[in-house]
Design a protein that fits this description.
This protein has about 110 residues and is mainly beta. It is about 5% helix and about 50% strand. A hairpin with a 6-residue loop joins β4 and β5. The protein is globular and about 40 Å long.
Length: about 110
């Protein structure tokens, strides 16, 4: 049973914007804090943004002020708006609960070019 499906990645120039989306199973979406994670080439997966069940948000220092995480309750989606993208933002983006409890989805590739 597929529970987390990410989409919306792509190729973008540095300074540009992109929005990635994650559709989650209802139980996961409604009863968990959710997070967006990033795995850059050759590096471990890291948490970049999270949103609690009361919609309180937190961000890694590296993305603070540039990324915005939100929930779309009508579609059980977690969104990540990424602005002022940098080369270091390149990676595969995943969503999961925060902390991560569920099987990882396939992720969505974000590539930032110069």
């Amino acid at each position: 049973q597929v529970q987390l499906v990410e989409s919306g990645g792509g190729l973008v120039q540095a300074g540009g914007s992109l929005r990635v989306s994650c559709v989650a199973s209802l139980v996961i979406f409604r009863f968990n804090s959710m997070g967006w994670y990033r795995q850059a080439p050759g590096k471990q997966r890291e948490l970049v943004a999270s949103i609690a069940t009361d919609d309180t948000t937190n961000y890694a220092d590296s993305v603070k002020g540039r990324f915005t995480i939100s929930r779309d309750y009508s579609r059980n989606r977690v969104l990540l708006q990424m602005d002022s993208l940098k080369l270091d933002d390149t990676g595969v983006y995943y969503c999961n609960s925060q902390p991560a409890h569920y099987a990882w989805g396939r992720g969505t590739q974000v590539t930032v070019s110069s």
